[in-house]
Design a protein that fits this description.
homopentamer, transmembrane (chains A, B, C, D, E), mainly alpha, cell membrane (chains A, B, C, D, E)
């Protein structure tokens, strides 16, 4: 998650330098050909305007859907924060078997670490810290680690509900609902992670921007000569920057400064839960990166 | 679901070659008539612009609704994934009758295969693999196969809740809620499948694009001669491509590379559920098609 | 619900012939006056463009809200389909009093027929086929027929829950939730039916289109003479067709080819429910109308 | 709620006569100054167009939010209708204490009248008709009348659930959920009533329309002389009318013909509930106002 | 929350004086250079128009998301109002242990004060007024004060449900659901508070407005000389004002006149709850600020 409103020149160039070079080259070539070989033909001004209308739709559409994916991802993980707190509160106060409650709260932290690693597709075994050796062995038999951890939770929940001093049906229901919520949060995150945004939209957007840049250079070169290179690049920069902007948040679980700060969120839950368990060796919040510019 | 961002030239031509030919022909005819028979008349430039405004609304509207249908379909099947996991978890851990639980989990895989076949309107009897001979006979009496399978689930759920060692009301409620969710997921999928997008929108969009192409060729031919054919086609291509784009995801349960990858989703659930049942002969994930371009 | 993507010329003319004639007349008059009495004055081109911007907002706004009403109506009736299946499944499998269950399922079909008649404001007593003589007499005392039928359902649900062999609280809760859903579906349908879309939007849209047609004819007549009549009509046709389009789905429970096919949906539920009751005299699905063009 | 699609000239003038006069005056002054003092300067045409783009956003934004508030208000009261019917159905059929049920249904009608009066900020004591003298005294001690009535309902619900013949926990739960829904409906209505739409949007919209009118008159006066007064007013009328339109439904609980017809909705519920109680002195539905033009 | 529709000149200047000065300076410099050094070059008019299209998307996008955040924040706190009333109603009428009920209602007011202070990031210990000394000590051990208060509520809820005369499972469930809602409301508020709106959108919007102002001055200076300074500033003012407008409600829990009036909402709940507890020393509603212009 980006934290500073003023982007460094570094980030802007990092995002756009490739298309910037490409556009300047294209505009120069188009300008040269138009001025030297077709000095009299003049493409009417309303054509780039019409194309701009279609393009504005594409760029707005992509950005809206990207933002919706990003914000939905944020809402899902916000929900996981809330339900993690409710899970801890219910286990600590509505059950008498404190040992089992502690085990289930620890294991829930492990679930979050495993889910984070699975969404980011990195090899990260931090979740093992919160599981017993026996549990790790069971979990390793399954291809979907966080789902396997939830099975363990369900087993212990059934244990709490059948052994003396046992919790009654209403408490069982409340805890099972939270378990279902965790399952839904996991599945929704996977849906956003695994569903590719229709690639045709992205492809045509890029294609149409390049056509627009060409048309603008053509319609401007007669009036202002080689200055049309700058103008073509400028308009192209505006559209490309807007488009690239949206693309950076399209896959909100990537390891990008603009994406959902899973490290920071999981750490916050971890701290809250360990505090509730009255532990003393509580880790520090996640650090910001590159001079406080963003967190991951 | 398309997986690659760079569309092959093959797919673009496949999508648009018919309208491309049609537009080039139309532009050529219009250009020829305008240049030879009405060399002096000039239609004002602001008319195509005004028409473009109306058209932009139509194209944006169609695309937005198409995307909403596509994304809702994806959410519905994401929900089926989550609830399938919860169904398995609950049956394995909250009941003692393991044989009945296995039967109900197997049958659920059958339900998903039957629903997939029904949505794609193909003759596919894969679901029978997960039903007993007796069940297949019962199910075949009904016109709606997946609904008939759910009736069997309800019957066994009632059995679990009344026979010793029986599940209590709270567990019955949790499982019945999941059953209702499956029913809702099925009904919502059928709604999207069976509801035709208002055909007038599609028809008028196409009509207006052809009118726009004609007007653009007319307003450009005086200025740039036969090059107006290229210009008319170019603008028309942009609008047609955008429109056709949206149409490919309008019916998200069709067997199209852009649509919801039901094969892949059902297979993923199948693998998860068979793993949970500790089966060993687990099928492989669905393969990608045409050099990793898409999955179905 | 329209089924064919290619509109017959018949339907387009049926929708627009009145405004088409009106516009052609208006354009002719305006053109005649402008050419003969104000041959030199020229209204700037950017005025119709500015008006077009405002108009595009109006037309888009109306169409979006119309589509939302239409799609919400479709979702409501999709929900009634799902809940009708769940209602039948629960009554048949979770109760032992099969006679009462059959009565309540029959009565539910009656409820749907009564709701359909009430939404379409037609005199249709089909619902009586599924009620006993005694029930018909009770229901006739109330002004709101479907609501009265639901009262009978609640009475029998209470009977099921108190008489031996009775259903327990959890099953009572599940069935009562479905009853509440039916009540909500009915109320939501009535809300869409009875809430008039703010009339000012519709009125001003029409007014502004007529103003736009006038302005376009005025700004074109100097350049292209009496051909401005065609141009004025063409742009007006695009806006009027778009607007009329939206209006046809604004009241989705009307008896219009574009509206929600209540006949077909109710018949589908009827067939599903009678099949579940193992009846043999099951009615055929609703027929399509006018050469497969639409269903009602 | 307006019922007729054709607005009378009376209503249009009533809505806009002030700004109409103001705009005509402004245009005349601007026109006079421009023609007499700056006969040669010419502001480029693209400036009003650019301003129009920004303005279109503002007007669309305000109208969209206004409509959302209006439609949300309608949904809330539609929900109150549905839950009132469920409340009555549950009390009459799921309880044995008919006297208490009647009292609670009567009191619910009182709740709706009190809520209506509170939302419209009028002194209306109709609610007292449905409360006993004792209850009126209790309610009068609180500043929020409808909330106080709900406290009485909760008290009687607890009575029903503890005294013999008492309702069981499941019925208690169902009725308590409805009570919570009433509380939510009340709170949501208050939220819409009490939250002022960000005033900056309304203010800047008006400011920008006046600037646009000025610019249009300036850019048109050179070409068409004093006819620019009409043109300036016409464009201004379109934007002002659109803006004022939205504002009339921004506060949907006001006593305006365009707003939510609380009188009519409350009366409909009253009739339904009294019918269910088999009362004979049932009031007539609310009348339409000004020749069937609208209801309140 | 702003209460008056007419903004004082004071507020407009306060919001925009910095960019106003900056724009006037920029326009003057650009105008001077263009008129004196490039008197003949003329940038085509359609370039600012195209840029305006892209800019309109950015400004609309930012404003829409800002308004959505603001309105969601308002809905969350409206939900807290509703649930606070339900919490009080349930505790007072569904439990017999009046002392414990009072304690839990008092503590809930403390929770709201603690949540408000935490969202506004101010040092405000008002919440201590509603907690006992012992509770304050426990709460101070945790970094998240409102969450710690909820743990105390859960503890007392468990007490109510296990000690004689105890509440049954259904009442426990209803109260626990409200507790979960409070937890969700808190978490959702924190999500909006802590999630920075993607900074790239804000940054590029500002950048593109400055480019647009430059282009407009360049394209106007040839036609109208130094008057282009005013025109450039005017268009820039419209876009900047719109953008700044949106930014003021982007973080709706800030201490700004446009933001959610937490003081006023918390005070309203406090009054309602103390009235329900029949207290006599009830505080007055929050005062409006700066001559009734806004409340906090």
């Amino acid at each position: 998650m980006l934290l500073k409103q003023n982007l460094s020149l570094y980030r802007i160039l990092k995002l756009t330098w490739k298309v910037d070079l490409g556009m300047l080259l294209l505009c120069a070539v188009v300008c040269y050909i138009d001025i030297n070989f077709f000095p009299k033909s003049q493409i009417p001004f309303h054509l780039p305007a019409l194309l701009g209308t279609a393009l504005a739709f594409f760029v707005a559409f992509n950005n809206n859907q990207a933002y919706d994916r990003w914000w939905e991802a944020r809402i899902i993980w916000g929900g996981l924060v809330n339900d993690s707190r409710s899970w801890t509160r219910a286990l600590l106060h509505y059950t008498n078997d404190r040992a089992c409650a502690r085990k289930m709260i620890f294991r829930h932290i492990g679930f979050l670490y495993a889910l984070k690693a699975s969404l980011r597709k990195v090899e990260d075994f931090s979740y093992r810290k919160y599981l017993s050796q026996e549990e790790i062995e069971i979990v390793d038999r399954f291809s979907n680690t966080p789902n396997a951890i939830m099975d363990l939770q369900a087993k212990d929940l059934q244990y709490l509900a059948t052994e003396e001093p046992r919790i009654d049906g209403f408490r069982f229901l409340a805890l099972n609902n939270l378990l279902t919520n965790f399952c839904d949060g996991m599945g929704k995150s996977e849906r956003i992670k695994n569903t590719v945004f229709p690639t045709t939209y992205v492809y045509f957007t890029r294609l149409f921007i390049w056509i627009l840049v060409t048309l603008i250079t053509l319609t401007s070169s007669n009036a202002i000569g080689y200055a049309a290179i700058i103008i073509g690049w400028l308009i192209g920069f505006v559209f490309h920057a807007t488009h690239i902007n949206g693309m950076t948040i399209m896959n909100p679980f990537d390891l990008d400064p603009s994406c959902i700060p899973l490290n920071s969120i999981v750490r916050t839950i971890e701290i809250n839960l360990l505090e509730a368990l009255e532990k003393t060796d509580i880790p520090a919040p996640e650090k910001t990166i590159r001079e406080g510019e963003y967190i991951l």
